[in-house]
Amino acid sequence: MASRKRFRTETVEASIEDALDGAADIRTLYEEMEEWQSSFEGANMEHMLKYDEVTAAVEALEECGEVERIADEIKESEAVLEEKITYVRISPYGKKPEPRWMTCANACNMLQAVAEHINNEELTEALSEMETVDFPSMY
């Protein structure tokens, strides 16, 4: 039986200013994973495999501060904020919520499109760290 795609892709056009908001999405994911890690620690569950997976995700997402810093610098320049970029957006079919990996991929796709448009190697390098994030499942 052939596997069915569980998501769809579409090409989206956005202003650079709107695309830079992807950094906030990455920050939100970092805070969520950090909170999950703390809940394990508060319940003395550090010995579990899931704790190790969550900790690895937190460590990989720690680079989000660098991504945010670079995004803020680009926003301050103001010269390019209204320019348009295109990126590929992934979304689930139906009314399913967007999983963490999808939120991260969409944010990275937006920011990578900005980096390519304005030729910003520093942002490209910071985003390459985001590719190593492996989000654990809830169960």
Characterization of the model:
By secondary structure, the chain is an alpha+beta fold. It has one domain (7-130). The protein contains six helices and two strands. It has helices at 16-19, 22-42, 49-61, 64-77, 100-118, 121-130; strands at residues 7-15, 84-92. The chain has a two-stranded antiparallel sheet. The radius of gyration is 16 Å and the shape is globular.
**Distance from first to last alpha carbon:** 26 Å
Trace the largest sheet across and list its strands.
1-2
- Please write the string of helix (H) and strand (E) elements: EHHHHEHH
In angstroms, what is the radius of gyration? 16 Å
The rough form would be described as globular
Number of helices: 6
Mean pLDDT: 88
Structural class: alpha+beta
Low-confidence stretches: none
- How many separate structural domains? 1
Largest sheet: 2 strands, antiparallel
What is the strand tally? 2
In percent, how much strand structure appears in the residues? 5-15%
**Proportion of helical residues:** 55-70%
What's this, in brief?
Helix content is about 60%, strand content about 15%. By secondary structure, it is α+β, with helices and mostly antiparallel strands.
Q: Mind sketching the topology for me?
A:
Elements: E1 7-15, H1 16-19, H2 22-42, H3 49-61, H4 64-77, E2 84-92, H5 100-118, H6 121-130
Antiparallel strand pairs: 1-2
List key phrases describing it.
about 140 residues; alpha+beta; two-stranded antiparallel sheet; 6 helices; globular
